[in-house]
Amino acid sequence: MSEPSIVIENLSKSYGTKQALCGLNLRIQTGMFGLLGKNGAGKTTLMKTIATLLKKQTGRITVCGVSVERAAEIRAIIGYLPQDFNMYGGMTVRQALDYLGVLSGMTKRERLSRIPVMLERVNLESQAGKKVKALSGGMRQRLGIAQALLHDPQVLIVDEPTAGLDPEERVRFRNLLCEVAQNKTVILSTHIVGDVEATCQEIAILDEGRLKFGGTVSELCKLAEGSVYTADCSFDELPMIRSAYTVTGTVSKGGRHTVRFLSPNGKPATGRETAPTAEDAYIYCLQARGGANNGAV
Amino acid sequence: MALFKLEMRRLLFSLIFLLTVAGVAAFAWSQGVIPSADPITKPEPGGAYGSKPSGDPALIMPEAAVSLYGQYAANRYITYPNGFYKMVRLNESKKAQMSAVITELAEDGVISAGGAADLDGKEIKITGGDMTVNMDGSVNIIMPEDSVMSVDEFTLKEGLAWERFLELMERADDILGGGSDFSGQWLEHRFGQIPVTYEEALADYELAVTGDRLTGAHARLFSDYMGIIMSLLPVFPAVFFCLADRRRIAPVLQSRRVSSAKLILTRFAALLCGVMLPVLVMSAIMTAVYAAEYGAANIDIWAYFKYGLFWIMPTAITGLSIGMFFSTLTSTPIAIGAQLAWWFFDMMGGSGMYEFQGVTALKLIPRHNALGKTAVYLGYRQDLIWNRVWITLIALGLAAASVIVYSLKRRGLLNVSVFKMFGNDKERPEV
Fold it and tell me: Which residues numbered 222-261 in A keep a CB inside 8 Å of some CB on B?
């Protein structure tokens, strides 16, 4: 295995009494890396800490061998797409990229050559003269990814990029990230399991600032094997199943319901075992007692 | 330079900048600064040339004492605390204190109205007042509040020392709550004025022609007016410029390679050029107007620009730096309040129309509300230079502090939010 692009060792960070990250260890290789977790799990804190926007309290982070304390150097090699990306509404798409290119220290020649390439890559060429405030949510996210890639960073950090996008935009966005990840490290933070399942080789699950799981999607699914069941039931039986188990999905057809649920403590009274999906496994992982895995990925 | 151009473009096409320019231009127009003030003309013998403070105790003391007595008699005192008109009426206790001051000012300690001795054996008719007879036969007369007594007979005590007179005037001002004509700041300006002589007017004219080369005098008056507006308006584009970065844009900018110093100082420079632009344009217009009026050879064509940079720019820098510093620190428009407060107290606690009173350190808006008065200007120029240097240093210090604050916030080391206490903290970190 090649040298990891990002190394995180014993990372902790708190806001007052709230512990956002707690003794986190991660090794992230080139390619797509998915960061899963509920809202408030510490994903954004981790992303911002790697992007030098937050100061860690303890531990060590290196990006491509450079410590995050050397902020100026880190900023030159990372691209960051924050949650709810936005830019000055009065600027056009091209002006916004030009402005951010200047802030990234790009020369005029570099900007002139890179901006059209990025616009083409994110399919915004025809919108280059459009004001940012007139862009749709999907277009704005594509502008976000264009600005993050503009200076050709080695590491791309994207925080919840598909939230609020329609399914078509989401698929397009995921494909774009996969293309980028051919020769870069892309950290994708999300709470949408489908995004990670479709794009990431390696994933990590955070819960209350702690690493719950680190590994591949198939390893995650393997954890939940033997604990996922489906059962057909009537409407009247639904509340009983919901109170006894964690239901991960319900499909209704006519008066009958097919329920998908977790039973981590052995075979349930009803239902048949089924192969876990990534979403089942994710929920299983978050709910499993003592399931924390603070080992390095 | 590329960043400066982009920041300039961002500023020049913003609504707040257009409103600022419109505000500056409208103010200049309303004050008669543009299109042009009256030209400076050579005084003719036999005319009136205005007045000036004499500073002569022999003139000041009787005028001031009579004025105080007149207001005392009517129990109506005009004051301007913090620059705003206020009519003061004293209660019985304060009246007694003021009476003691008046008694010490009056000849033989007697306050007379119409000459008490002349009233012997005559009928006194009092209307609207009240009279009570005491057990010993004496009477108390309570005058109606709106009665005005004659001040013709008031005579200042002979031989009253100037120093003691000043103490009494300060005492009177204290009783009135400050801001009266009798305070040390105003006493010598309000009383004892004497006419300007033809010779003095001629000397002032010649100094304006030779020393100021005419446009210098015009530029000073221009700076006087523009200082008022340029001490107030620049804070607005600075605040709006900084607040445009609030939470959703800030992380995109902060994660880039540019240094905090380069970003903040380039923005500062762009804002400064932007807000000085209308001043420089008006300066060019006025120079052209006076070149046509007096002849280009007779004027200093750089006077407006020199005064603009030396007199107005430090004031503008201060507004900008306050705007940038407080906006960067708190991510709120609180800087507008801070600048308004400084502007208000500077204007209202001002030093008079054209005499620079040596408030050297924090005087934001130096005034010279006169066309000419070159000798007066030369008298305070050294103080003014120090004031401008000091104000500029304060402004640059705030700009440097803005860089430090931005740098700390950029790394998540500083989070100041006045909204925290209201539970509406837009800068609260997301977990």
Answer: none
